[in-house]
């Protein structure tokens, strides 16, 4: 039978690591959206500055690029990516303090910390398990010291989400490049 302190320590460690993954994902998405906004702002500016070299649709293309450049950062703000990543950071730092300074009421403090912070979604947990147990091939245990393994479904959903993330990044960053390519080579 597993000791209760070890059980709680394992749960705290696992929750802390999943919250780190959640924070990292949200900060990365926030950065991508801000870069996308800046990128489209530069594309819009270049379309308007070099209008002489383009066809008759440069105003419409420039307006489209301007709209994307303007609204991409607002999407980040609307989703609250920075706010939620800060809350996850605060949570995992508090959990780490709890692990560093165990006390008799560790279970109560653990519950209080989780009550004060937003819960991560199931995909954050899947990302952590796949990265830790499958990609890095490390041993991962849950609160009861049972091995946690990445299931085939976890790996497949992780792979699909990675594919679609990169697909949409390429999709959103390619229109200015395609536009400039047609302008200069046709």
From TrEMBL:
Any keyword Ribosomal protein? no
* Entry keyword annotation includes Transmembrane helix: yes
InterPro entries membership:
SLATT_5
Task: Kindly list the residue ranges recorded as spanning the membrane.
Answer: 32-50, 62-82, 163-182
Q: Name one Pfam family in it.
A: SLATT_5
Q: Organism's domain of life? A: Bacteria
Q: Which UniProt keywords apply?
A: Membrane, Transmembrane, Transmembrane helix
Residue ranges occupied by any SMODS and SLOG-associating 2TM effector domain in the UniProt entry = 4-172
Give the protein name, as stated in the record: SMODS and SLOG-associating 2TM effector domain-containing protein
Q: Which organism is it from?
A: Candidatus Liberibacter africanus PTSAPSY
């Amino acid at each position: 039978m597993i000791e209760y302190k070890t059980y709680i320590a394992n749960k705290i460690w696992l929750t802390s690591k999943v919250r780190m993954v959640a924070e990292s994902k949200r900060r990365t998405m926030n950065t991508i959206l801000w870069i996308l906004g800046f990128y489209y702002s530069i594309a819009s500016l270049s379309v308007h500055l070099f209008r002489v070299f383009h066809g008759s649709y440069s105003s419409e293309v420039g307006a489209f690029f301007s709209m994307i450049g303007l609204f991409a950062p607002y999407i980040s703000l609307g989703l609250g990516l920075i706010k939620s990543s800060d809350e996850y950071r605060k949570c995992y730092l508090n959990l780490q303090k709890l692990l560093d300074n165990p006390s008799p009421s560790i279970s109560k403090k653990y519950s209080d910390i989780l009550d004060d912070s937003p819960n991560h979604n199931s995909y954050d947990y899947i990302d952590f398990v796949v990265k830790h147990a499958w990609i890095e091939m490390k041993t991962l245990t849950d609160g009861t010291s049972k091995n946690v393994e990445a299931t085939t479904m976890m790996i497949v959903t992780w792979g699909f989400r990675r594919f679609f993330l990169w697909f949409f990044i390429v999709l959103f960053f390619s229109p200015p490049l395609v536009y400039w390519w047609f302008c200069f080579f046709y």
